[in-house]
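Field guide to reading this record: the first block holds the primary sequence, the second block holds the structure written as discrete tokens, and the final block holds curator observations. Each block starts with its own label. This record concerns Response regulator, catalogued under organism Paenibacillus arenilitoris.

BLOCK 1 — SEQUENCE
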Amino acid sequence: MTGKVLLVDDEAHITRNLEKVIPWEMLGLTVAGVAKNGAEALEQMENTEFDLMLCDIRMPVMDGLELVRHLRNKGSACDIIMLSGYQDFTYTRAAIQCGVKDYVLKPIPYDELTGVIARIMSGRRSKQKRQQEEKQKLGRIIDLASEKILYDVIMDYTDVTADNWLLTGDEQQLKRKKFVLLLFDLLAGTEQTKDWRDWPDKERKLWNFAVCNVLREALRREGHHHAVIQIRDGEWCVLIETDESAAYDLPVVEQWTKTLLAAVKEHVKLPLFAGIYREFASAEGLSAAYKQVQQGMQLTPAHDDIAVYPSGQQSARQADQALWDAAEDMLGAVKRGDAAAADGHLAGLAKKLQQMNEPSSDRVKPLLHFFVLHLMREMKEMGAFPKEQEEKLWRRLDRRFDIKDLLAVIRQVTNAVSEKSADKKKQSERSMAIAKDYLDRHLYRDLSVDEAAAHVGLSTSYFSLLFKQNFGETFIEYVTRQRMERAKALLLETPKSVAQIAKEVGYSERRYFTKVFMKYTGDNPTDYRGKERGGEA
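BLOCK 2 — STRUCTURE
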């Protein structure tokens, strides 16, 4: 990119010579403005951003030093070379104090001036490159943190209200963003996925990881600002941020979805199905939008590769919705380990089925079958039963049978969990105690929920659920709170710098640490240290 230069001198022949003699194009620059005094220069700089200014000191109306002071007071980042026929050191010192990069005496030695310009612009470009790299690095950190928060928002474990102190800096913008929501799923009950069900856990984890990477890379190539969030084994939610003024364009969204499906099929060799939420979703509406798409995909017996939800058909079937809601209530009780509530919900589900007219059974059976598949996948996430028992249940589901048989499978699954509920609860408490100890010992480095879940041998989704149930806050909320409390103690009890403390509590980027700390305490780290220590004195 060509940089812009402003020449400021009341002697017209000097600015003409500068334009002609200096090899601006070779230096990657172009003369974009000429002014006779500081006032004219200021006026031009209101409308144009210059990278370099060559400026005389003595000029009518406004001299060079006064111009430089004006620019520095405004926060201008333009580099400045002063030109002067005065050798008095007072001028040189005043110019340096104003942040001038160099000082060249008249008559102008053009070769020397060319070298000075080349050196200054090389330094400027290096600085801009570092700043861009730091900005990208900070952006990646914020994106990763946003993905962690977005998972909790989608699962309805946290919210995006102003009270949520985790929404710092750029993440605060989540509340004002709108998203395209896509859900990619591996249908566990199809012929194509029977091999997948037999894969060892390690192989499936690698496959899940590969799908995430393929989706992210495809989205990056398309230039989308995005988040890819694995919800459970074989299910991924993709969120694409859009311009606030953009209108929802379904054909465009469908094309994006086709591109992503093709990328996964090409690189991972296993076809997925996709569901599209038919309008933009706000941050507050993400959980509801995700549930509508997931439910639509689970309840549709015949799947196209891509479908849009909610469909007109889907919203019209109120009886189906009531049945699914009852089944979801039962699933929630099972996941909480509440055996009594699970039995009660199962009895209610059976009663609803008995009350339905016989002709509706052909419609209800596929609905119930898909719910059983949904239940099986959730129980698999929980590690609710041994591999051998799981395989028997899958084999039963592969056969054709009626509603009574489907209810029997549901009862078998819930009984299997209920029998272990007491043991499961104790095991969960032990797992969470181990996880807490692990987190407290590793706050100094970047910790992911996947790593913590793997440490205690749980799936990420089930770990997140148990963590919220046990500690009353999400994984990211807990880790961030502990880090901030540790940082507060280090600020008050040690002379360590803010950058050192940021690294000690797990933040490689000081500016991001400062943003989080300010949201948590209301002060930046330096002010917090001064205020608290001053209060003690």
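BLOCK 3 — OBSERVATIONS
Residues 110-154 form the longest helix (45 residues).
Residues 424-536 form a domain with the Arc Repressor Mutant, subunit A fold (CATH 1.10.10.60).
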